[in-house]
Amino acid sequence: MFIFRIFLTFALMNDFSLLMSIYKHENPDYVVTCFDSIYSQTVLPTEIVLVEDGPLTSELYKVLEKEEKRFPCMKRVVLEKNQGLGVSLRKGLEACTHDIVARMDTDDICLPKRFEIQINYMQAHPDIDVLGAWITEFEYEPSNAVAIRCLPEEHKEIYNFGKLRNPMNHPVVMFRKKAVLDVGSYQPCYLFEDYYLWGRMLVKGYHFHNLQQSLLLFRRSPEMIQRRGGLSYAFHEIAFLKKLQKTGYISSFNLIRDVSQRYIVRILPNSLRRFVYQHWLRIHP
User: What pLDDT shows up at residue 222?
Assistant: First the structure.
């Protein structure tokens, strides 16, 4: 059955690359679950480009060797040192053969028709350069859904929304490689590599769309909310917003407003920040 689905993917000319990055702190069990969800897709990626961002653990190497045998069309791009997500994805994108590229993190779970729905939409809408969707966030087990990150559908709404918050769910996007390369590809921007990319693409006139359905289960640890707080995170966010202003996507007024609003959220106690994320920035499943 697996071989038949590979044949069907090629026969339908649904050619696309799946771009992923992995580093040494990933949980091997989560990586296996992620790959299981890929192989369970109704339409499979033509190739998987996996960037190893620095040396990995022996357990992770064993997992990747097994997955490489299961999917011979996997390309492993090896970086000798950990260089961060921006550099990792830029190197990986260079290795992608196909113009349509899907993104995914190695600890998340694709819903079974994710790739089929997205590739069909991209082929039917050649004017769309970046296609996103909603994600369902879960803690501990996939059955324990805690929130859904919903985003606006149409390009104009996405453009305006992006001036306030990240307008795309990065782990579930599919995009056209040429468009991403045209704005300089992924660039180092610690914690905000994807948001910085979307801002540069939006200001240059590339078209975005978000499917109004959840296509991916996003693994959210209780520590995630904690990591999105504190002075260090706030300073990185301010540096990112200054970069975004230089692109012309946000104005000086937007910069001052966003810094003021986001800084308050970052310095809140963890319990209050979790409340904000759970009840103001997400909807319940």
Answer: 66
Query: Which of 149, 127, 92 is CA-nearest to residue 277?
Result: 149
DSSP 143-176: T-EEEEE----SHHHHHHHTTTS--S-GGG-EEE
Q: What are phi and psi of 215, to 5 degrees?
A: -120, 0
CA distances from 25 to 20, 22, 81, 102 (A): 15, 8, 14, 23
H or E element that contains 202: helix 193-203
179: left (phi over 0), alpha (psi -120 to 50) or beta: alpha
Q: Say if residues 86 and 12 touch (Cβ distance below 8 Å).
A: no
The CA–CA distances, whole Å, from 24 to 55, 88, 224 equal: 7, 13, 18
Cα separation, 51 vs 34, whole angstroms: 15
Query: For residue 10, what pLDDT is reported?
Result: 46
| Inter-CA distances, 145 with 39, 111, 142, 150, 272, Å | 22, 14, 6, 14, 20
End-to-end Cα separation, the chain, in angstroms: 33
> Whole-angstrom Cα distance, residue 282 to residue 270?
17
- Per-10-residue mean pLDDT, the chain, length 285: 49 82 97 98 97 98 96 96 97 98 97 98 98 96 93 98 96 98 96 97 98 96 64 84 96 87 68 63 61
Q: What tokens does 177 get?
A: 């490689």
Evaluate whether 227 touches 233 at the Cβ level (below 8 Å): yes
